[in-house]
Amino acid sequence: MSETTMMKTRSRLIIPGLSGLYESLHEGAETLLRVVAGLALVTHGAMKIGNPFGAAEMVEGLGFYPGVFWSPLLAFTEFFGGFLIAIGLLTRPAAFAATFVLLVTVWFHWITMGQGYSGAEKSILWAAIFLFFTIRGGNRHSVDAKIGKEF
Hints:
It contains 7 helices and no strands. α4 (about 65-85) crosses α5 (about 90-110). The chain has helices at about 5-10, 20-50, 55-60, 65-85, 90-110, 115-135, 145. By secondary structure, it is mainly α. It has one domain. The protein is globular, with a radius of gyration of 19 Å. Helix content is about 75%, strand content about 0%.
């Protein structure tokens, strides 16, 4: 962060002395969010990866035909995509795929199940997190940064 930006930030803070703390924790907090979100997606996908065709009927019920194509894609997106997000490799495409999956679950809970916002709230939050990483990428604490290439 440039000196000018730090001075502007410091002048906006109620307690200006905290600017150094906030600056030092900024990237670490972003990295922690990426890792936790990715691992949460891996955990969710782990239930599906053992039986990648197990959700075929469910995805067809959402209008994704044929289920034998979309069900494994869902399992791989959650499991392997979550792993990629956690380590920060191909962060943007993996996060984009996760965002798409979560927006489908928003539709499912809000519209198909008729649960409205209360049923879709968790999916909305997760979709927002993955949209953030779709736009932002993995930051300097990612494999993308270590290899010097990003999508």
